[in-house]
Amino acid sequence: MKHYSKKFWFLFVLVATVFLAGWFVFWEIRSHNLDTLKRLLGWLPVGEEMKTDLDTVISLGDALLDTDGEEKTFLILFQNNLELRPGGGFIGSFGILKVRDGSVTHFAVHDTGNFDGRIPDTIAPPYPMNETLRISSWKLRDSNYSPDFAENAKWAETFYHMGQGSEQFDGIVAVTANVLTSFLRVTGPVELAGFPGVYGADNAIIDLEYQVEQGYLKQGIGSGERKSVMNLLGMRILEQVKTLPLNKKYELFQVILEDLKQKDIQLSFKDQTLQDKVRAAHWDGTLDQSWPDDYLLVVDANLNAWKSDYFMKRSYHYTIDLTGEVPQATLAVTYRHTALKKDWFVKDYQTFLRVYVPQGSYLTDVTNATAEPVFGEFANKKYFGALVQVPLGTEKTVTFRYTLPNKIEQTWYDLKVEKQPGLNDVPVTVTVIAANGVEKDTSFVLNENTVLSTLK
């Protein structure tokens, strides 16, 4: 039994890791026994949620380890959440990963700055990209403008083919820079021959950013090769992962699951059976379109504020008043810019802030926005959008006041708060004023989709 348990956890780490191949690691898996692992799932002493997660990973393993000799191709989107976008972060690079029967047959990383030059200038960018980024057309690097990964995956594939990309994808995977921190927290710091310093969990993202934006110039590296350090770092981390003891491999597996739950990893597959499994585990990054009660999603899009999200602190305070005939909602989004001086990395913050609420909601007032609000509908939700600017070293609170539809149940009020990919550790306070005037506050840190039943 000890032998099977070791193999069980070892394989799960490998299968989960292969989907992070584009970011930093890939592994060739040559021997496996998935039927044994499936039988183990029945008696494994874990909760139902973990069993669902493990069952999903087994399904991913089936798809990767036994392809009947067919090569499977995946598009990997690397999202830099230091420059936050609705889908996770600015897409500075993308990878093409090919797998056949458990072996990685091809992996290459491409700079979207180079690739986008091949895409025709035929699609107008969404508001307010033209006004803030000074661009006249929409392309791959900005394609993740939706908080819904199914929508972003579709646009990414569309732009890839518009740029004369010839691959047909079996799946699309998006990962944020947070995944690098997750891995290094388990493996420990690494060094790279030919590059200065040590890459550890606390500094790797910033040091990588400096290398690809500034450091490569001093080393005589061409601009087209400035992101090659990512491949070198990936291989070095892979070497370190291979030497981890079993308990650290299990810790790595748990970290990967956490990244999936936090939407730092999002998955989309063409195989419907596999996609259904991913959706059941909530790893597909899609918005809940069927939730019947109150709903809130706050989404930021850093537009021409460089990598300032590294310095931005946010908090949300949502108040719902159920004492009147129509529910009244107030959302206060507070930004604190902790940087004090402009340089190559940071400047005044600018974001296009969107608030997704139930259909039938009506905005009555917004304060502290830079421009007049705009409105739209998506995923069976309504949204209010406003451009917001936060100067260096300042704090600003943007407040939305709106009415909710009468269908919102006031007796047993429920609220679902969904999180934006790439944005973690946001403090949230929800104040519910019940029909009888009694107030109740609930506070939590938003790291995954959360449901509150405050009047039960």
Characterise this structure:
By secondary structure, this protein is of the alpha+beta class. It has two domains: 279 residues, Aminopeptidase (3-Layer(aba) Sandwich); 160 residues. The protein is 29% helix and 30% strand. The strands form four sheets. It has a six-stranded mixed β-sheet, with no helix packed on it. A six-stranded mixed β-sheet has the order 12-15-10-9-17-18, with no helix packed on it. A five-stranded mixed β-sheet has the order 3-2-1-4-7, sandwiched between helices. Helix 1 packs across helix 3, helix 1 crosses helix 10 and helix 3 runs antiparallel to helix 11.
Structure characteristics:
alpha+beta; Aminopeptidase; 2 domains; 6-stranded mixed beta sheet; 11 helices
Summarize, please.
With 456 residues, this protein is an alpha+beta fold.
